[in-house]
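**Protein fold record**
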Amino acid sequence: MRIALYQPEIAGNVGAILRLAACFGVGVDLIEPCGFVFSDARLKRAGMDYIDQVELIRHADWDAFLAQNTGRLMLMTTHGSDALHSAAFERGDVLLFGNEGSGVPPEVAAVCDARLRIAIRPEARSFNLSVACGIAVAEALRQTGGLPL
């Protein structure tokens, strides 16, 4: 199981996701360019000392990521056609998250194996990126028996 972040814009979110990945024991693919300098203090503050415990792979762009990816791409999106809780995850899945401002472009969504949405109240727009990531990764790991004991 891996988390893939498509051109994230907010350092604090990435730091929180790296901490989440360390706690769950999943790898992270960071698809650049990012909207911040990777050495940003906010990234380090949110990730704390957990960042060194994550298998992090930085990819120069989407094409570089695709060339190395071997898992199913499970896109988490507010425009998802299927609910997260009804998806059937597999151990090798890559949970792809778009950036905070615009998600992923249509050509990226088109190559994904699934487009999933997290159930929220109709009057709410979306979760914060790191919160959505935590919900989705926990569900995927629960289904595949990958939650830490």
